[in-house]
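Field reference: "sequence" (input) and "structure" (output). Example, DNA-binding transcriptional regulator, GntR family:
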Amino acid sequence: MTDASVVPAEAPAGPLVGKVATGAEGCASRLRALVAGGDLAPGEQLVEVALAERFGVSRNTLREGFRVLASEGLLVHRPHRGVFVHSPSVEDVRDLYAARRAVECGALREAELRARGGLAPVEEVDRLEGLVLRAQKAVHEGDFRAVGDLNTEFHRALIAMPGVPTLTEWGERLLARARLAFRSHEVPERLHADFVPRNASLVPLLAAGDFAASARELRGYLATAEEDVVGGILAARRG
């Protein structure tokens, strides 16, 4: 667990949806990006004074941001103790993956409806392929933090394919929760490395415009990942 006296470096935020977030909404967005980037560990206490200074906001505004993320299941307030990053339970992971299957597979179905000529835009497929290649290189180099970041980016790009802002917004919240679940795994490095070939398997299907097969592959992939994450969390608890 990260030392509670340390404020983590800020991760790059995901794509903005709609207008630029300010105030409590902006705080929530920046905190969510830290979670999604793997910079905040499950159970870590947040340092209110330091974060307010870092974000350039009042402590009241920061607390509003805390409340937003608490409602999303990313933070928890413990009376007389402070605000902590949520530690996902097995039930949380089951709920998360049911939602991910609905949102991510739904995004592919919507992308198919919006595709011109029945094919995914070449630039989007190229982006996904590029993320896979970078992840494969990171695995080879043993840079598993980068592998985790690239896995998040891959799924963010999938969800964004149909260009539906609400789907993108939901995806950001789910991917942040997923990163917390990964951090709770017994061996998160192995978990991220195992995701890379599954991501790679989706690229040729999307390049061929076979959205239905892509959605089936993704659904099976997420079901397998769910069991891997649950197993890793249970093993970490036993250890």
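Confidence is low (pLDDT under 50) at residues 1-21.
The CA atoms of residues 45 and 79 lie 13 Å apart.
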